[in-house]
Protein backbone atom coordinates (compact mmCIF):
# COMPACT_ATOMS: atom_id res chain seq x y z
CA UNK A 1 0.00 0.00 0.00
CA UNK A 2 1.20 3.47 -0.82
CA UNK A 3 2.03 5.70 2.15
CA UNK A 4 -0.69 8.06 3.25
CA UNK A 5 -0.30 11.60 1.88
CA UNK A 6 1.10 14.18 4.27
CA UNK A 7 -1.24 16.97 5.33
CA UNK A 8 -0.18 20.12 7.14
CA UNK A 9 -3.08 21.55 9.12
CA UNK A 10 -2.24 25.03 10.36
CA UNK A 11 -4.82 24.94 13.15
CA UNK A 12 -7.31 22.55 14.75
CA UNK A 13 -10.38 21.69 12.71
CA UNK A 14 -13.80 20.50 13.92
CA UNK A 15 -13.90 16.98 15.47
CA UNK A 16 -15.39 15.20 12.43
CA UNK A 17 -12.77 16.77 10.19
CA UNK A 18 -9.90 15.94 12.55
CA UNK A 19 -11.07 12.31 12.61
CA UNK A 20 -11.19 12.11 8.80
CA UNK A 21 -7.83 13.86 8.40
CA UNK A 22 -6.19 11.52 10.88
CA UNK A 23 -7.66 8.47 9.13
CA UNK A 24 -6.80 9.43 5.55
CA UNK A 25 -3.57 11.40 5.99
CA UNK A 26 -0.36 11.59 7.94
CA UNK A 27 -1.05 14.80 9.83
CA UNK A 28 1.62 17.13 11.19
CA UNK A 29 1.04 17.78 14.94
CA UNK A 30 -1.61 20.47 15.08
CA UNK A 31 -0.88 23.49 17.28
CA UNK A 32 -3.28 24.68 19.98
CA UNK A 33 -3.79 28.00 18.20
CA UNK A 34 -3.53 29.18 14.61
CA UNK A 35 0.04 28.98 13.26
CA UNK A 36 1.69 32.09 11.88
CA UNK A 37 2.85 32.01 8.28
CA UNK A 38 6.47 31.84 9.49
CA UNK A 39 5.65 28.82 11.65
CA UNK A 40 3.78 27.21 8.74
CA UNK A 41 6.85 27.62 6.51
CA UNK A 42 9.10 26.05 9.16
CA UNK A 43 6.64 23.19 9.61
CA UNK A 44 6.46 22.67 5.84
CA UNK A 45 10.26 22.53 5.56
CA UNK A 46 10.41 19.97 8.38
CA UNK A 47 7.33 17.86 7.51
CA UNK A 48 7.48 17.98 3.67
CA UNK A 49 3.68 17.95 3.19
CA UNK A 50 1.79 17.10 0.01
CA UNK A 51 -1.02 19.43 1.04
CA UNK A 52 -1.55 22.44 3.31
CA UNK A 53 -4.82 23.76 4.70
CA UNK A 54 -4.87 27.48 5.54
CA UNK A 55 -7.51 30.09 6.36
CA UNK A 56 -7.91 33.84 6.18
CA UNK A 57 -5.79 34.21 9.29
CA UNK A 58 -2.85 32.52 7.55
CA UNK A 59 -1.69 34.70 4.67
CA UNK A 60 0.45 33.17 1.92
CA UNK A 61 2.17 35.93 -0.06
CA UNK A 62 4.61 35.62 -2.96
CA UNK A 63 7.68 35.54 -0.68
CA UNK A 64 6.04 32.73 1.35
CA UNK A 65 5.18 30.75 -1.78
CA UNK A 66 8.85 30.95 -2.80
CA UNK A 67 9.83 29.29 0.50
CA UNK A 68 7.41 26.32 0.22
CA UNK A 69 9.10 22.97 -0.38
CA UNK A 70 8.55 21.48 -3.85
CA UNK A 71 6.57 18.53 -2.43
CA UNK A 72 3.53 20.79 -1.85
CA UNK A 73 0.96 20.00 -4.55
CA UNK A 74 -2.17 21.65 -3.19
CA UNK A 75 -3.17 24.48 -0.85
CA UNK A 76 -6.77 24.43 0.37
CA UNK A 77 -8.02 27.58 2.05
CA UNK A 78 -10.92 27.14 4.48
CA UNK A 79 -12.57 30.36 3.30
CA UNK A 80 -14.41 31.74 0.32
CA UNK A 81 -12.23 34.86 0.34
CA UNK A 82 -8.80 34.61 -1.26
CA UNK A 83 -7.36 38.06 -0.56
CA UNK A 84 -4.87 36.53 1.91
CA UNK A 85 -3.28 34.50 -0.89
CA UNK A 86 -1.02 35.42 -3.79
CA UNK A 87 -2.94 33.47 -6.41
CA UNK A 88 -0.59 34.08 -9.38
CA UNK A 89 2.47 33.11 -7.29
CA UNK A 90 0.79 29.88 -6.16
CA UNK A 91 -0.28 29.06 -9.74
CA UNK A 92 3.21 29.83 -11.07
CA UNK A 93 4.62 27.16 -8.73
CA UNK A 94 2.15 24.66 -10.19
CA UNK A 95 0.38 24.32 -6.82
CA UNK A 96 -3.36 23.64 -7.02
CA UNK A 97 -5.52 26.04 -4.98
CA UNK A 98 -9.07 25.61 -3.71
CA UNK A 99 -11.46 27.67 -1.55
CA UNK A 100 -14.84 26.94 0.09
CA UNK A 101 -17.67 28.83 -1.62
CA UNK A 102 -21.40 28.11 -1.15
CA UNK A 103 -21.20 26.12 2.09
CA UNK A 104 -20.78 29.30 4.17
CA UNK A 105 -23.29 31.47 2.31
CA UNK A 106 -26.20 30.93 4.71
CA UNK A 107 -24.24 31.41 7.91
CA UNK A 108 -22.57 34.55 6.61
CA UNK A 109 -25.94 35.95 5.58
CA UNK A 110 -27.42 35.04 8.97
CA UNK A 111 -24.59 36.95 10.63
CA UNK A 112 -25.20 39.99 8.44
CA UNK A 113 -28.84 39.98 9.61
CA UNK A 114 -27.68 39.64 13.20
CA UNK A 115 -25.49 42.72 12.70
CA UNK A 116 -28.34 44.64 11.05
CA UNK A 117 -30.70 43.84 13.92
CA UNK A 118 -28.12 44.35 16.66
CA UNK A 119 -26.87 47.68 15.28
CA UNK A 120 -30.37 48.99 14.57
CA UNK A 121 -31.73 47.94 17.97
CA UNK A 122 -28.68 49.03 20.01
CA UNK A 123 -27.89 45.55 21.26
CA UNK A 124 -24.39 46.48 22.49
CA UNK A 125 -25.68 49.35 24.62
CA UNK A 126 -28.54 47.36 26.11
CA UNK A 127 -26.26 44.44 26.94
CA UNK A 128 -23.81 46.83 28.63
CA UNK A 129 -26.69 48.38 30.61
CA UNK A 130 -28.00 44.98 31.74
CA UNK A 131 -24.54 43.90 32.89
CA UNK A 132 -23.98 47.18 34.74
CA UNK A 133 -27.43 47.01 36.37
CA UNK A 134 -30.68 48.02 34.67
CA UNK A 135 -31.64 49.87 37.86
CA UNK A 136 -34.54 52.02 36.70
CA UNK A 137 -37.10 51.95 33.92
CA UNK A 138 -36.03 53.65 30.72
CA UNK A 139 -37.95 56.75 29.79
CA UNK A 140 -40.22 56.44 26.74
CA UNK A 141 -37.82 58.49 24.66
CA UNK A 142 -34.57 57.14 26.09
CA UNK A 143 -32.06 54.94 24.17
CA UNK A 144 -34.37 54.37 21.25
CA UNK A 145 -33.27 52.23 18.35
CA UNK A 146 -34.22 52.30 14.67
CA UNK A 147 -37.08 50.23 13.23
CA UNK A 148 -35.82 47.55 10.85
CA UNK A 149 -39.08 46.45 9.22
CA UNK A 150 -39.77 48.20 5.94
CA UNK A 151 -36.40 49.97 5.74
CA UNK A 152 -34.31 50.25 2.57
CA UNK A 153 -31.26 47.99 2.49
CA UNK A 154 -28.46 48.70 0.05
CA UNK A 155 -26.15 45.80 -0.75
CA UNK A 156 -22.78 46.30 -2.42
CA UNK A 157 -21.80 43.00 -4.02
CA UNK A 158 -24.79 40.87 -5.04
CA UNK A 159 -23.03 37.52 -5.24
CA UNK A 160 -24.10 34.40 -3.38
CA UNK A 161 -23.88 36.02 0.04
CA UNK A 162 -25.42 39.34 -1.01
CA UNK A 163 -28.39 37.49 -2.51
CA UNK A 164 -28.83 35.39 0.64
CA UNK A 165 -28.86 38.59 2.71
CA UNK A 166 -31.49 40.08 0.38
CA UNK A 167 -33.57 36.91 0.73
CA UNK A 168 -33.57 37.24 4.53
CA UNK A 169 -34.19 40.99 4.46
CA UNK A 170 -37.34 40.43 2.38
CA UNK A 171 -38.71 38.66 5.45
CA UNK A 172 -38.46 42.02 7.22
CA UNK A 173 -40.32 43.72 4.36
CA UNK A 174 -37.17 45.62 3.48
CA UNK A 175 -36.79 47.28 0.12
CA UNK A 176 -33.63 45.91 -1.52
CA UNK A 177 -31.21 48.00 -3.59
CA UNK A 178 -27.94 46.67 -4.92
CA UNK A 179 -24.87 47.65 -6.81
CA UNK A 180 -22.79 45.04 -8.54
CA UNK A 181 -20.38 44.78 -11.45
CA UNK A 182 -23.25 43.51 -13.57
CA UNK A 183 -27.01 43.49 -13.34
CA UNK A 184 -28.47 40.13 -12.28
CA UNK A 185 -31.11 38.23 -14.25
CA UNK A 186 -34.68 38.67 -12.91
CA UNK A 187 -34.77 35.27 -11.16
CA UNK A 188 -31.76 36.31 -9.06
CA UNK A 189 -32.68 39.98 -8.75
CA UNK A 190 -36.12 39.13 -7.34
CA UNK A 191 -37.33 42.70 -7.55
CA UNK A 192 -34.22 44.32 -6.06
CA UNK A 193 -33.34 47.64 -7.71
CA UNK A 194 -30.01 47.75 -9.54
CA UNK A 195 -27.57 50.65 -9.46
CA UNK A 196 -24.56 50.65 -11.78
CA UNK A 197 -22.45 52.39 -9.11
CA UNK A 198 -22.58 52.47 -5.31
CA UNK A 199 -22.46 56.29 -5.49
CA UNK A 200 -25.90 56.36 -7.14
CA UNK A 201 -27.33 53.91 -4.60
CA UNK A 202 -26.00 55.27 -1.30
CA UNK A 203 -28.31 58.32 -0.96
CA UNK A 204 -31.31 55.92 -0.93
CA UNK A 205 -30.07 53.51 1.78
CA UNK A 206 -31.26 53.35 5.39
CA UNK A 207 -28.87 50.43 5.89
CA UNK A 208 -25.76 49.68 3.83
CA UNK A 209 -24.24 46.19 3.87
CA UNK A 210 -21.03 45.13 2.12
CA UNK A 211 -20.80 41.72 0.47
CA UNK A 212 -17.96 42.02 -2.00
CA UNK A 213 -14.44 40.61 -1.94
CA UNK A 214 -11.41 42.67 -1.02
CA UNK A 215 -8.90 43.46 -3.75
CA UNK A 216 -6.35 46.13 -4.57
CA UNK A 217 -9.10 47.95 -6.51
CA UNK A 218 -11.64 47.91 -3.66
CA UNK A 219 -9.21 48.80 -0.84
CA UNK A 220 -10.67 51.61 1.26
CA UNK A 221 -13.56 52.17 -1.16
CA UNK A 222 -15.89 53.04 1.72
CA UNK A 223 -14.26 56.36 2.54
CA UNK A 224 -15.45 59.75 3.85
CA UNK A 225 -16.90 60.70 0.47
CA UNK A 226 -18.90 57.46 0.17
CA UNK A 227 -20.11 57.56 3.78
CA UNK A 228 -21.10 61.19 3.18
CA UNK A 229 -23.45 60.03 0.41
CA UNK A 230 -25.49 57.97 2.90
CA UNK A 231 -28.42 59.80 4.48
CA UNK A 232 -27.83 61.06 8.03
CA UNK A 233 -28.77 58.35 10.54
CA UNK A 234 -27.92 55.42 8.24
CA UNK A 235 -26.60 52.11 9.56
CA UNK A 236 -23.42 50.55 8.22
CA UNK A 237 -22.83 46.79 8.15
CA UNK A 238 -19.65 44.94 7.21
CA UNK A 239 -19.37 41.16 7.32
CA UNK A 240 -17.13 41.07 4.22
CA UNK A 241 -13.62 42.49 4.67
CA UNK A 242 -12.17 45.27 6.79
CA UNK A 243 -9.91 46.37 3.95
CA UNK A 244 -12.94 47.69 2.06
CA UNK A 245 -13.28 50.48 4.65
CA UNK A 246 -11.34 53.61 5.55
CA UNK A 247 -11.77 53.13 9.30
CA UNK A 248 -10.76 56.73 10.17
CA UNK A 249 -13.68 57.93 8.06
CA UNK A 250 -15.99 55.33 9.62
CA UNK A 251 -15.01 56.40 13.15
CA UNK A 252 -15.61 60.07 12.27
CA UNK A 253 -19.06 59.29 10.80
CA UNK A 254 -20.06 57.25 13.87
CA UNK A 255 -18.79 59.92 16.27
CA UNK A 256 -20.59 62.86 14.68
CA UNK A 257 -23.87 60.96 14.28
CA UNK A 258 -23.85 60.90 10.49
CA UNK A 259 -24.10 57.14 10.96
CA UNK A 260 -26.51 56.02 13.69
CA UNK A 261 -24.65 52.74 14.24
CA UNK A 262 -22.43 50.10 12.70
CA UNK A 263 -22.41 46.31 12.86
CA UNK A 264 -18.94 44.99 12.12
CA UNK A 265 -17.59 41.45 11.91
CA UNK A 266 -14.40 42.38 10.06
CA UNK A 267 -11.67 44.94 10.59
CA UNK A 268 -8.62 46.27 8.82
CA UNK A 269 -6.35 44.97 11.58
CA UNK A 270 -7.37 41.51 12.73
CA UNK A 271 -7.13 40.26 15.42
CA UNK A 272 -6.35 43.68 16.97
CA UNK A 273 -8.86 46.14 15.52
CA UNK A 274 -8.57 49.91 15.98
CA UNK A 275 -9.52 50.43 19.65
CA UNK A 276 -11.31 53.72 18.85
CA UNK A 277 -13.84 51.74 16.83
CA UNK A 278 -14.54 49.23 19.58
CA UNK A 279 -14.95 51.94 22.23
CA UNK A 280 -17.83 53.57 20.37
CA UNK A 281 -21.18 52.74 22.02
CA UNK A 282 -22.93 52.60 18.63
CA UNK A 283 -20.65 49.86 17.28
CA UNK A 284 -21.77 46.26 17.59
CA UNK A 285 -18.65 44.19 16.90
CA UNK A 286 -17.91 40.49 16.51
CA UNK A 287 -14.52 38.81 15.89
CA UNK A 288 -14.82 37.64 12.23
CA UNK A 289 -17.31 34.86 12.97
CA UNK A 290 -19.45 34.91 9.82
CA UNK A 291 -18.79 31.24 9.09
CA UNK A 292 -18.25 30.17 12.70
CA UNK A 293 -20.93 27.54 13.31
CA UNK A 294 -20.15 23.88 13.93
CA UNK A 295 -22.12 22.88 10.83
CA UNK A 296 -20.61 25.41 8.45
CA UNK A 297 -17.03 25.10 9.64
CA UNK A 298 -17.33 21.32 9.32
CA UNK A 299 -18.74 21.70 5.79
CA UNK A 300 -15.96 24.12 4.83
CA UNK A 301 -13.21 21.89 6.19
CA UNK A 302 -14.71 18.73 4.64
CA UNK A 303 -14.84 20.55 1.29
CA UNK A 304 -11.20 21.56 1.76
CA UNK A 305 -10.30 17.92 2.40
CA UNK A 306 -12.33 16.83 -0.66
CA UNK A 307 -10.31 19.29 -2.73
CA UNK A 308 -7.02 18.04 -1.28
CA UNK A 309 -7.94 14.45 -2.10
CA UNK A 310 -9.03 15.38 -5.63
CA UNK A 311 -5.75 17.21 -6.27
CA UNK A 312 -3.62 14.38 -4.88
CA UNK A 313 -5.46 11.81 -7.00
CA UNK A 314 -5.09 13.90 -10.15
CA UNK A 315 -8.80 14.70 -10.34
CA UNK A 316 -10.19 18.19 -11.00
CA UNK A 317 -10.69 20.30 -7.87
CA UNK A 318 -14.30 20.64 -6.70
CA UNK A 319 -13.96 24.36 -6.00
CA UNK A 320 -10.79 25.64 -7.67
CA UNK A 321 -9.50 29.18 -7.29
CA UNK A 322 -8.57 30.24 -10.80
CA UNK A 323 -5.50 32.38 -11.39
C1 LIG B 1 -12.78 32.74 7.42
C2 LIG B 1 -13.89 34.11 5.75
O1 LIG B 1 -12.21 32.02 6.43
O2 LIG B 1 -14.64 32.54 4.17
C3 LIG B 1 -14.08 33.62 4.37
O3 LIG B 1 -13.65 34.32 3.44
O4 LIG B 1 -13.53 35.22 5.94
C4 LIG B 1 -14.14 33.21 6.94
O5 LIG B 1 -14.99 32.18 6.66
C5 LIG B 1 -12.80 31.89 8.62
O6 LIG B 1 -13.15 32.70 9.65
C6 LIG B 1 -11.45 31.25 8.92
O7 LIG B 1 -10.42 32.21 9.01
From TrEMBL:
The keyword Secreted does not apply. Residues 14-321 form the D-isomer specific 2-hydroxyacid dehydrogenase catalytic domain. InterPro entries: D-isomer_2-hydroxyacid_DH, D-isomer_2_OHA_DH_cat_dom, D-isomer_DH_CS, D-isomer_DH_NAD-bd, NAD(P)-bd_dom_sf. One of its GO terms (molecular function) is hydroxypyruvate reductase [NAD(P)H] activity. Residues 113-290 form the D-isomer specific 2-hydroxyacid dehydrogenase NAD-binding domain. SUPFAM superfamilies: Formate/glycerate dehydrogenase catalytic domain-like, NAD(P)-binding Rossmann-fold domains. Keywords: NAD, Oxidoreductase. The keyword Oxidoreductase applies. One of its GO terms (cellular component) is cytosol. Pfam families: 2-Hacid_dh, 2-Hacid_dh_C. Belongs to the D-isomer specific 2-hydroxyacid dehydrogenase family. This is D-glycerate dehydrogenase. It comes from Novacetimonas cocois. The lineage of its organism: Bacteria, Pseudomonadati, Pseudomonadota, Alphaproteobacteria, Acetobacterales.
Amino acid sequence: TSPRPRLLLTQRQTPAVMARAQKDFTVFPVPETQMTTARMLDAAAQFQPDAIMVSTSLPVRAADVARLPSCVRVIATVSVGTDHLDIPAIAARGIALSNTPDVLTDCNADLALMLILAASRRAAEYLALMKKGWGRGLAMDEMLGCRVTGKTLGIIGMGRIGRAVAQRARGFDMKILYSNRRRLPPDQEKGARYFATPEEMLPHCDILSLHMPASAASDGMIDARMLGLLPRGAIFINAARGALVDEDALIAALRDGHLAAAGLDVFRNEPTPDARLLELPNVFATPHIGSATMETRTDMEMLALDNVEAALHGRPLLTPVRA
